């Protein structure tokens, strides 16, 4: 399973700011969107383009454009919404498929409560947006759901991943490439990532 850690200085700098406990809700939200934008750029390096001739200022000129229907963005509710705006900044025309998963606080298993997917999933690459890859249960469940709906190509964009979550994804969805800003140390007894960001959903939405 390809795991691509984005070591770009801007990503590392912004993630460092997100790790600070006193970063405001506004700051955390903005940084999540900015890193999502940079991860989207990396994750779409292999998009196919085709030549097309347009009328330029000095006559016809051959340029390149993205070929065909390519992407659906898949934010996992709720924290994944914090990455959606940043991804849409780069791909403003992308169709969005929304998946709702809630991790049980005791078992840490995800419960699916919502899914509204584009109907031509088989023709698109799904870019799943979820800031935290902790046990990996939520991302794996989202990939199960996308596969069952006909999706053939999935990539995941995460801010922080734990080794435990990467191992689960390698076992259940080895074909899914994971683009991540940092691979952290481990999970704590509540399955939170250390050093991590804390509860990303709460920090993005200002709850708790
Ligand atoms: C968080 C996070 C991921 C999930 C990661 O969501 O946004 O979706 O936990 O944990 P896992 O890898 O162990 O499954 P949560 O269920 O807390 O919901 P929220 O986004 O609504 O806060
Ligand atoms: N969900 C979060 O928001 N943070 C973690 O560290 C783990 C799951």
Automatic annotation (TrEMBL):
Q: Any idea which positions bind uracil?
A: 193, 198-200
According to the record, the protein's activity is controlled as follows:
Allosterically activated by GTP.
GO terms for molecular function, please? GTP binding; magnesium ion binding; uracil phosphoribosyltransferase activity
The UniProt record lists the Phosphoribosyltransferase domain at 7-207
Gene Ontology CC terms? cytoplasm
Keywords in alphabetical order, please.
Allosteric enzyme, Glycosyltransferase, GTP-binding, Magnesium, Nucleotide-binding, Transferase
Q: Which reaction does it catalyse?
A: UMP + diphosphate = 5-phospho-alpha-D-ribose 1-diphosphate + uracil
Using the record, list the residue span of the signal peptide; answer none if the entry has no such feature. Answer: none
Where, by residue number, does 5-phospho-alpha-D-ribose 1-diphosphate bind?
Answer: 78, 103, 130-138, 199
Pathway terms, separated by semicolons: Pyrimidine metabolism; UMP biosynthesis via salvage pathway; UMP from uracil: step 1/1
Q: How is the cofactor bound?
A: Binds 1 Mg(2+) ion per subunit. The magnesium is bound as Mg-PRPP.
Cofactor needs: Mg(2+)
EC number assigned by the record: 2.4.2.9
Q: Does the keyword Transport apply?
A: no
Q: Which InterPro entries match?
A: PRTase-like, PRTase_dom, Upp_B, UPRT, UPRTase/APRTase
Question: What is the stated purpose of this protein?
Answer: Catalyzes the conversion of uracil and 5-phospho-alpha-D-ribose 1-diphosphate (PRPP) to UMP and diphosphate.
Identify this protein by name.
Uracil phosphoribosyltransferase
Name of encoding gene: upp
């Amino acid at each position: 399973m390809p795991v691509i850690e984005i070591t770009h200085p801007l990503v590392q700098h912004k993630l460092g700011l997100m790790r600070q406990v006193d970063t405001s809700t506004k700051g955390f939200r903005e940084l999540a969107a900015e890193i999502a934008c940079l991860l989207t750029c990396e994750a779409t390096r292999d998009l196919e383009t085709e030549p097309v001739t347009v009328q330029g200022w000095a006559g016809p000129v051959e340029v390149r454009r993205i070929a065909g229907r390519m992407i659906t963005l898949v934010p996992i509710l709720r924290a994944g919404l914090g990455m959606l705006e940043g991804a849409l900044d780069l791909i403003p025309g992308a169709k969005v498929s929304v998946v709702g998963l809630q991790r049980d606080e005791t078992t840490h298993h995800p419960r699916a409560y919502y899914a509204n997917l584009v109907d031509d999933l088989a023709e698109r690459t799904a870019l799943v947006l979820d800031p935290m890859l902790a046990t990996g249960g939520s991302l794996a469940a989202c990939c199960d759901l996308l596969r069952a709906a006909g999706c053939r190509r999935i990539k995941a964009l995460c801010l922080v991943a734990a080794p435990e979550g990467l191992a689960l994804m390698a076992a259940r969805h080895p074909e899914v490439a994971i683009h991540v800003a940092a691979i952290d140390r481990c999970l704590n007894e509540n399955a939170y990532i250390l050093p991590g960001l804390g509860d990303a959903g709460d920090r993005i939405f200002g709850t708790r």
